[in-house]
Specification:
- The structure is a single chain.
- The chain is of the alpha/beta class.
- The protein has two domains: 100 residues, no CATH class; 223 residues, Spore Coat Polysaccharide Biosynthesis Protein SpsA, Chain A (Alpha-Beta Complex).
- It is 46% helix and 15% strand.
- It has an eight-stranded mixed β-sheet with strand order 3-2-1-4-7-6-8-5, sandwiched between helices. It has a three-stranded antiparallel β-sheet with strand order 9-10-11.
């Protein structure tokens, strides 16, 4: 019994030692770790076993807002630079334009919806009647016999007696999109199984129809479209409009085609097989669509077959009476794209490098002026590079001045931002509201001053 009592006293005097992994560490042991995360805290030596001081857990310093903005703007400029360089690479990789090779010549019906007089309209329409092609039909369409375009169409028909050309005057409406109503009225008189719809402000080379026929010799092709370049007719506003087509719109399409197969058409050329159009639901399905060209290609690609890029470049005659009319035109275009590709359009601000550079330079200019200047020079150089690649690869009739390209980039950003403030558009003298599905709702006519 005495031995047992002595053992109990021994155990009481010597407490049980914990394993090393479970022993409590002194606060001083943690100071180097805390110091790594908060180097501004001064640590006084602490006695072993003392509790950590409250200052050891002091909050991290506040983030510098200006440095954060610098970082975000730098990332923005980097993203725009990557895009511009990709656009340059796509332009450089584009094959040079060649004359259409001789091939099959199926008969083609060409529909030209018209509305009002336009600069060089006679020459534009004449180019579609002077095709080096055997069998084709041309149908001009207007909603009213009093439309100035009707007289010009009659002159073109009289100048081409050997061409199967006619004028359809019909004000029947099948929906809010008056252009598609015009096309549908013309379609009633079409004779051939291959249909081509082209906007009135386009001018085509003589082998235009042969290019289309060659493309549709592939049985998998159900629809096709053409790229186009702008040619200014008029003053500064027209030059800015043409510059957008040549140096922003066209390169963006080439980049988009590298990311996914073509799934849309352009109003410059919408070519489609009659059977495919009927299966789609006819032009009536497009009757209320603002982006009728995009929808046509998108539906065909999703349900019926391939949409092909026809290797022919047509020319768009750009005439803007003023900067105000240019802005209205481009806002309609921007809101059209926004209605059918909301995410892609929202991210399109990444294609404007000059505004990104100006914003970054303004933010860092007071502390690092030389770097701010270099940032702007870099962005202007990128725009100049695109300008030169467009001039070399697409050979526009009127290359834009370098300074105009810089101004145009800033204007592009402004149009992009303004497009988010409202869903109203003006088109051919009418005011419309555009819903989130891209459907048109007619609001009324526009009073002209």
């Amino acid at each position: 019994m005495a031995r047992s009592t002595r053992g109990q006293r021994r155990r009481a005097r010597a407490p049980r030692r914990l394993p090393r992994s479970k022993r409590a560490l002194p606060a001083a042991h943690f100071r180097p770790v805390i110091h790594l995360y908060n180097p501004t805290v001064a640590h006084a030596p602490a006695a072993a076993g003392a509790a950590p001081a409250a200052a050891d857990f002091e909050a991290l310093p506040a983030v510098n807002p200006r440095a954060t903005v610098d970082l975000l703007l730098s990332l923005y400029l980097c993203a725009t630079s990557v895009y511009v360089l990709c656009a340059v690479a796509c332009l450089a990789a584009r094959r040079p334009l060649r004359a259409a090779a001789a091939g099959a010549r199926p008969p083609i019906t060409l529909i030209k919806p018209l509305h009002g007089d336009e600069p060089e309209l006679y020459v534009n329409l004449l180019s579609f009647c002077q095709q080096d092609y055997a069998a084709f039909q041309v149908i001009f369409g207007v909603a009213s016999g009093h439309d100035a375009a009707a007289d010009i169409a009659r002159q073109v028909i009289a100048a081409c007696p050997g061409v199967d050309a006619s004028l359809v005057i019909n004000d029947r409406s099948i929906g809010s999109n008056r252009k598609i109503s015009n096309v549908a009225n013309c379609h009633e008189f079409s004779k051939h199984d291959l249909l081509v719809i082209a906007d009135s402000d386009m001018r085509a080379p003589v082998d235009y129809l042969q290019h289309i026929a060659n493309t549709f010799s592939d049985p998998d092709v159900m629809a096709g479209t053409c790229l186009y370049r702008g040619r200014a007719v008029g003053g500064l506003a027209s030059w800015l409009g043409a510059a957008f087509i040549n140096e922003w719109f066209l390169p963006s399409v080439l980049v988009a085609m590298k990311l996914r197969p073509l799934h849309f058409c352009f109003g410059a050329t919408m070519a489609i097989r009659r059977a495919t159009l009927q299966a789609l639901g006819g032009f009536e399905r497009l009757a209320n669509e603002l982006a009728d060209d995009f929808r046509l290609g998108d539906w065909v690609a999703a349900q019926y077959g391939r949409v092909a890029l026809i290797p022919c470049l047509v020319e768009n005659t750009v005439h803007e009476r003023s900067l105000r009319t240019l802005l209205k035109h481009e806002l309609r275009w921007a809101r059209t794209v926004r209605s059918v590709q909301p995410l892609g359009y929202a991210l399109s601000f990444l294609t404007y490098c000059v505004p990104a550079a100006l914003a970054l330079a303004a933010n860092i200019g007071s502390t690092r002026p030389v770097l701010g200047v270099l940032v702007v020079v870099w962005a202007v150089g990128l725009r100049a590079l695109v300008h030169e690649m467009v001039r070399i690869c697409l050979a526009p009739a009127q290359p834009t001045a370098y300074l105009l390209s810089v101004l145009r980039d800033i204007l592009c950003f402004g149009v992009w931002a303004m497009s988010f403030f409202g869903r109203e558009v003006e088109w051919q003298g009418y005011a419309y509201a555009v819903d989130q599905q891209g459907q048109l709702d007619l609001k009324g006519t526009i009073e002209r001053a």
